[in-house]
Design a protein that fits this description.
alpha+beta; Tetrahydropterin Synthase, Chain A; four-stranded antiparallel β-sheet; three-stranded antiparallel β-sheet; 7 strands
Length: 469
């Protein structure tokens, strides 16, 4: 396949996977935490109710989040789970006492989040939306509101609004639970009538309140007049007492002024006399302080000199003594390291030589054992050789011997044979090679002491054959 075909295949695969991802993304449905997804279709599921009974339903739900919906097999609906506010205003309804009144109330209702209630709400409200749920709630609440109003008097409703709200909540609880709804709050905002009954109920209280207010105002004015007179009396007495005290204070003030002038004159004379004494004393104190300052300056100069000596000592230690000590420690460490390195190298070489000697000894021992074992097996094989084997071995060696004998001749470029015989020169070369080969048994006998002729004769003689038989 060429490059174009591969590119077409790769493009088709990419397009296929893109389409698959697009379909999966389109079929993955998501909702917020205030909504529930109802997925209809697919296999049936078993639903266990609160009383223990089981039902099989053909849908499932997801409260918030997302879920994959199989294309062509399942369909998705959205069920609102948020709070629905409801306002109710009833026409004239007769109370327990027969008085017609009108009531205005508000309530907050939502679908309960439990498993069973979601299934109930899905079966009854799916597809109608929030407005449809609100209409159902208004109808139920209006009927129950009429029912509660008919069981209470105007005075009970007017004075016990909390009790009225509790009765309404209890009245709608059963109906709402069968529809999967729950009431979060209920409030009676206002009650009114066209006959003036509620206004008449308030008139005695209003009149009593006005009467109590007038009496309280008169009492307040009376107490105010009495208290104001008493305050004026007390103010006049206080004024006279204050004037007497002021006169007494003025007389005492004049006397104290005279006494103060005498004391001032006395103190002034004493001050003039003591001025000179104090001036001399201050001069002496000043001289003493000057002497102390000079002493402190000397002490500070001595401290500065001592600090300078200490600084020079630290400088000498930092620039001379410590570098010398560091150099000494460095030289000592380098010498110890060199000594350790030489010792380690010597020890390593000794160990290496020892291991090398042991390895060579093992190798020689193994080689000798192998050669000895090979010779033993070869000797045992020669003992077991038959006539045919001996002949075969000897015959196989002849071509090799002939090749070795004639090999030097193959390296000669040109041979000139001068002979007076009528025979060809080449036949003489062949005869000479044969003569050399015929001398091989004698060569073997002279080198090894083994006589091949006698061995072959003993092996191939008729007597040896008869002995074997």
């Amino acid at each position: 396949m060429n490059l174009t075909s591969w590119l077409i295949i790769a493009g088709a695969v990419v397009v296929f996977f893109a389409l698959v991802i697009l379909v999966l993304a389109l079929r993955y449905r998501k909702v917020g935490p205030n909504e529930a997804l109802i997925i209809a279709g697919g296999r049936k599921r078993t639903l266990v109710l609160a009383d223990g009974t089981k039902r099989r339903v053909g849908y499932r739900y997801r409260l918030g989040g997302g879920i994959f919906v199989w294309p062509g097999m399942e369909k998705v609906y959205v069920l609102p789970m948020d709070v629905i506010s409801v306002s109710i205003r009833t026409p004239e309804v007769l109370t327990y006492g027969g008085v017609p009144i009108m009531a205005e109330a508000s309530a907050q209702v939502k679908i309960d989040s439990s498993d069973e209630t979601i299934h109930l709400a899905a079966e009854q409200f799916l597809g109608i939306g929030r407005d449809g749920i609100r209409d159902v709630v208004v109808n139920v609440l209006e009927g129950k509101l009429r029912e509660v109003i008919g069981g209470m008097s105007v005075e009970e409703i007017y004075r016990g609004r909390q009790e009225f709200s509790n009765r309404v909540v209890q009245a709608v609880k059963a109906d709402f639970s069968r529809m999967g709804l729950v009431m979060l709050s209920f409030a009676l905002k206002d009650i009114s009538d066209t006959q003036g009954y509620i206004d008449a109920l308030s008139k005695p209280q209003i009149a009593a309140a006005k009467r109590d207010a007038a009496i309280a105002q008169a009492e307040t004015e009376k107490e105010s007049i009495i208290k104001s007179s008493q305050a004026r009396k007390e103010a006049e007495v206080a004024r006279l007492q204050a004037e007497a005290l002021i006169a007494k204070a003025q007389w005492e003030n004049e006397a104290k002024k005279a006494e103060s002038q005498v004391a001032v004159n006395t103190k002034k004379a004493q001050a003039d006399f003591s001025y000179e004494l104090e001036r001399h004393r201050l001069g002496q104190d000043l001289k003493k302080e000057e002497a102390k300052v000079k002493q402190v300056e000397k002490e500070e100069a001595i401290k500065i000199e001592q600090l300078e000596i200490a600084r020079k000592e630290r400088e000498l230690e930092a620039t001379v003594i410590k570098p010398a000590d560091a150099r000494k420690y460095q030289i000592k460490s380098e010498a110890e390291a060199e000594e350790f390195r030489i010792a380690a190298e010597a020890k390593g070489k000794a160990e290496a030589l020892k291991l090398e000697g042991l390895a060579e000894a093992d190798q020689i021992r193994a080689k000798g054992g192998a050669e000895a074992e090979a010779m033993m097996k070869k000797a045992q094989a020669w003992e077991k050789y038959t006539q045919a084997a001996v002949l075969d071995t000897y015959i196989k060696a002849l071509p090799e011997l002939a090749r070795a004998v004639s090999e030097p001749l193959s390296k000669v470029d040109k041979i000139v044979i001068v002979s007076g015989d009528k025979e060809l020169g080449t036949t003489k070369i062949t005869a000479q090679v044969a003569q050399i080969l015929a001398q091989m048994p004698e060569v073997v006998k002279s080198l090894t002491g083994a006589d091949i002729r006698e061995f072959l004769k003993s092996k191939l003689s008729p007597e040896a054959k008869d002995a074997k038989k």
